Amino acid sequence: MATRATPRSARRRVEVVEAADMFYVGAYWGPRVESANECARRLALCLSQLGVVHPALATWFRKGRSKSAASGNPVATSVDVLEAMLVGGRDRTDVDGRVISELGFSVSLWNKNPVPVSFSTTCGASPATSSVKNYFTLELPEPVGAAAELYDPGVARSFFAR
User: Fold this and answer.
1) Residues 97-130 pLDDT 10s
2) What pLDDT, in 10s, does the model give residues 121-161?
3) Cα(75)–Cα(71) distance, rounded to whole angstroms?
4) Where does the record place the Immunity protein domain (predicted)?
5) How far apart are the C-alpha atoms of 105 and 128, rounded to whole Å?
6) CA nearest 33: which of 124, 106, 134?
7) N or C: which end of the chain has fewer CB atoms below 10 A?
8) CA 83, 89, 94, 97: dihedral to nearest 10 degrees?
C-alpha cells in the first residue's frame, strides 16, 4: 500500500465529538480561497449525499432565533439558492458594514424534524490567523429512540464514505 505526503495546508481533520448534550461530526480544513459558487457546489453535493444516507438528512430549513421563528418552508439545496445564502452569511465589520472577505462564507440550517439535526459551515476562508478554520459540522441528537438510527454503524460510516 503506497502513501503519499499531503501538504499541511491541504489536510482535513474529521472528528466525532460527544459533549454533555451534544453530538456532532465535524470536518475542518485550512485556508482555502474559494468563491461562493465553488462553496455552494460542494455544499449542494454534500447535502444531496446526506439525504441518501438517512431521511432525517434530506430536507433543510432556515434557522431562527427560536423553533417557532424558523422558516416554515424547506430550503432548496440547489447551487444557486445555496450560493445566495452563503453570500448572505458573510461576516461584516461593525463600523461600516464592509464584508470581511478573508472570513469566507457561512450558512447554518436545520431539518425541523422529530429527529433534530442541524449543520453549519464556513468555507472560502483564508485568514492570516490559524484560529479561524473552514469547517462543516453536522450536529446530531442524542442516540435514543428514532435518532439511534443515525448512530447505526452503516449509517455513521456513510457520513464519510461519499
Assistant:
1) 888 888 999 999 999 998 999 999 999 998 777 7
2) 999 998 777 777 899 999 999 888 888 888 888 887 787 76
3) 9
4) 22-126
5) 16
6) 124
7) N
8) 30
